Amino acid sequence: MQHMKAMLIAQAKEVRDDGSIVEIVVWELAVPLPGCAHPYKYRLFFGQAGECFVRYDNERGKGDHRHVGAEEVGYVFTTLDALLTDFECDVTNWR
Q: What is the pTM of this model?
């Protein structure tokens, strides 16, 4: 049986004039990570060196979740477009 390798489908990093960083990395996997019902591995980050303002990610066994400052809450993944829109909203509305 041949296995599909993970495929990078999005990668971008922006360092803004104020020093904040927006970084997006999304992989498509052959099979979902344990704890997820979709075939994506992702990390969406907004913060600055040493400080996370907002982060969306999924980890093996932990599933989809979102960090806002020091708080971590579950995230209901529906589509990649919705994920990116939710992240963009959080970045735009950050204090």
A: 0.89
